[in-house]
Amino acid sequence: MNMNSLRKIGAALAAAVTFSVVAGAGAAQTPLGVWLTPPDRKGQVAHVETERCGDAYCGSIVRAFDSDGEPVMTPNVGKRVFWDLTKIEGNTYGGMAWVPAHDRTYNAKMTVKGDELTVKGCVLMICQSQVWKRVQ
Questions:
Q1: Please, which residues have CB within 8 angstroms of residue 109's CB and are 6 or more apart in sequence?
Q2: Which CATH number fits domain 31-134: 2.40.128.520, 3.30.70.120, 2.60.120.620, 3.50.50.60?
Q3: pLDDT tens digits for range 39-97
Q4: CA-only gyration radius of the chain, Å
Q5: For position 124, what pLDDT does the model report?
Q6: CB atoms within 10 A of CB 47
């Protein structure tokens, strides 16, 4: 083999490795796991566990903590906060969400980027969003 052939093989291998790493990273971008919400108006945070529910994703509050990080029991622990999330495109999912602070249901979108989940809820043209952090 001449040097030109070796360079071409090396370049092809590098491209294949790069593609498989990038493709693997994209495939791992699902909302599955446990997510930490930002503090609510009382300073409480929650862990929301996302799991498969049939062909979609859903999530429930599994734990809540006060502003000092101490576990608290609230009526919302165990309640489902989103459901029917299906992939829209890339790492973005759409479905429905219930917001305990408002006791209302909204159209929701979630976008996964590494260990962050951007959660966006909208009613008509008014939207609000939060960034949740992956706990596990």
A1: 88, 92, 93, 94, 119, 120, 122
A2: 2.40.128.520
A3: 999 999 999 999 999 999 999 999 999 999 999 999 999 999 999 999 999 999 999 99
A4: 20
A5: 84
A6: 20
Q: How far apart are CA 106 and CA 96, in angstroms?
A: 6
**Would the pTM count as exceeding 0.85?**
no
DSSP secondary structure code for residue 123 in this structure: E
Say what the pLDDT of residue 125 is.
85
Calculate the alpha carbon distances from 64 to 42, 45, 98, 100, 117 in Å. 12, 6, 16, 13, 18
Q: Which two tokens stand for residue 60?
A: 């429930």
